[in-house]
Amino acid sequence: MPASSTPLRRGLAAMAALPLLTLAACGYGSEAKDDNAGARIAAGAKKTDGLDSVKIGYFGNLTHATALVGKQKGFFQKALGATKADYQLFNAGPSEIEALNSGSVDIGWIGPSPAINGYTKSNGKNLRIIGGSASGGVKLVVNPKKIKSLKDVEGKRIATPQLGNTQDVAFLNWVAEQGWKVDAQSGKGDVSVVRTDNKVTPDAYKSGSIDGAWVPEPTASKLVAEGGKVLLDESSLWPGNKFVITNIVVSQKFLKEHPKAVEAVLKASVDTNAWINAHPDEAKAAANKQLGVDSGKELPADVLDPAWKSIRITDDPLAATLDTEARHAVKAGLLEDPRLKGIYDLAPLNRVLGAKGESTVDDAGLGVG
C-alpha cells in the first residue's frame, strides 16, 4: 500500500511551484541531441515491451555520469533494441519531477531531495526509486583569503544551488551541527545562505558577492580553478564516505505497464557503471564529450579531472543515507516528517544484479510491500 505523505512546509511548496523550464520538446526540459554513434538502433533489433520509445531524463552534471556515458556509448539504446532511447535534459529537479508526473519522462536520473519531495507531495503515488547511480561529488569551496578554517565560515556568505535542494539541506544541517543558527527560509543568520544557480555561482564567486559555496561537481572544481580552496568534502561526514547524490526514478505507471523496458534500462545502467569503473579515463572522456554535445562546451582538464575523482559510481541507491537526508530536511524545518515507506522498488535491479552474479542491494526498510 503506498505510503501517505505529510504536508511540505511552504518553502518546499514554493520551490516546487517555481516556473518550469520553457525549453524545447515537452516544455519541461530540452531535448538532448542524438548526434553520437551510440544512439543508432541496430539493424534487426526488436522493440522492448512493444514501445516505440522510452523517455529518459537526466542533468548535464558529472554526478549524472551514468546517464552521460550510457548515452554517449550507446548502452541504453543497445539494451532497448528497436525501442528508441529518447533523451531529455533538465537543469532542475522540480521540472524533471513535473515531467515524470505528466508522462513526458518515463525514467530519470535525479537527486535525492527532488525524489523525496516528489514522492511526499504525491502521497506516495507518482514515482519509485529503482536504482542508484552516484555517491559523493559535493564540496564546500571557499575564498582562502576570507576563510582559512571551518570556524571562519561563521558570518560569511555561502552559496547553495536552491532552497531545499540536496546541497542546501546538507549545508543547513552542517551549520546547525556547528551550533550556528540560520533561518532556512530566508537564509539569514549566523551564516548567510545565498541560493544561487550553479551556472552563475562561479561568476558570483569571482565578483566577491559570495565567500564560498556548498556545491556539486563540476561547480566545485570550477570554483577551485578560480582560486577557491576545498575546505570540506561532504563525503567525509558520512559513514564509509558514501552518500547518495543521484538516483534512478521511474513513474509508477510506467513501472507497472512496462516492466521489461524498466529492466532493460536498469541492465544498461548496471553495464554502464561496470564499464565506467573498469575504464575510468575513457569514461571520463565519454562523459565530457556528452557534456559538450549537450551544452556546446566540454570541461577543461583542470575542472574535469578533480571533479571526476570525487564521484563514486554505484548501482547501490544507498537507501539508508536517503533516509538520513530526509531527516536532515526535517531538522532544518524544510520538511515535515516524511513517510518514505514504499519509495523504493529494488526488485527489478536486484533481478538484473542477480543474473550477473553481483550482490543485491538493500532498501533500508523503505521498499514496497
Helix-strand layout with pairing:
Blueprint: H1 10-16, E1 30-31, E2 53-59, H2 65-72, H3 75-80, E3 84-90, H4 93-102, E4 107-110, H5 112-121, E5 127-136, E6 138-142, E7 157-160, H6 166-177, E8 192-195, H7 201-207, E9 212-216, H8 219-225, E10 229-233, E11 244-251, H9 252-257, H10 259-278, H11 280-295, H12 301-309, E12 311-313, H13 319-332, H14 347-355
Parallel strand pairs: 2-3, 2-4, 7-8, 7-9
Antiparallel strand pairs: 1-3, 4-11, 5-11, 5-12, 6-9, 6-10
General description of the model:
The protein has 369 residues and is an alpha/beta fold. Helix content is 38%, strand content 17%. It has 14 helices and twelve strands. The strands form two sheets. A seven-stranded mixed sheet has the order 1-3-2-4-11-5-12, sandwiched between helices. It has a five-stranded mixed sheet with strand order 8-7-9-6-10, with helices on both faces. β7, α6 and β8 form a beta-alpha-beta unit. It is globular. The N and C termini lie close together (7 Å). 53% of the residues are buried. Residues 1-28 and 34-38 have low confidence and may be disordered.
User: Which runs of at least 5 residues are low in confidence (pLDDT < 50)?
Assistant: 1-28, 34-38
Major sheet summary line: 7 strands, mixed
Order of helices and strands: HEEHHEHEHEEEHEHEHEEHHHHEHH
Could you tell me the radius of gyration in angstroms? 20 Å
Anisotropy-based shape = globular
The total count of strands amounts to 12
Strand order of the largest sheet: 1-3-2-4-11-5-12
In helices, the fraction of residues equals 25-40%
